[in-house]
Write a structure and sequence with these properties.
This protein is mainly alpha-helical and 178 residues long. It folds into two domains: 60 residues, no CATH class; 105 residues, Rossmann fold. It contains seven helices and three strands; from the N terminus they run ααααβαβαβα. The termini are far apart.
Amino acid sequence: MAYQETLTFESDKPIAIELLVELADQLHQQGIEVYVANDNLWEECQKLLIEKGASHILSIRRLQEAVLPKVEDRDRRDLLVKVLGEQLQSLAPSNSLIVVDPYFLPTNLRNKTEYLDTFREIFGPIIPKIASARFITRTEYDDALYEAISRILIDLNPQMDVSHRAIIVEELRKAKLL
């Protein structure tokens, strides 16, 4: 059994996310896993149960986002690809996948082949399990790159429906997707 300890941080005002990310990074570098819990979660679940019933709670879908560092060297890149792939598999998408990323399908790509290989490496294991993939990016995107990614997805799952929507970054912010 692994040693486990719980630390609690309390503050009279919100703690800057940058500070929490920095703390989590420092702890992670020392081999310490960090999980963030919200004390209000239990109260929120009870309120939803009373107001909307159990079927509502059971119908809630898990959403997750991640902010990852930019990496330059090959070893760190391989680790980042592995982490991304495992995160995506842990989400276990069973029907559809929606990727909202203003930096996806960049127009200034140095190595398109490496980008496509990395995409296949990260997304490949889950693609046969899902029916549709939706990509939402900024209006400045590489259409040829989108077509290449679509071909990869269709090769991995011929029945898959693939679509893309480019929207203005301000619209992403208004919709709280960025």
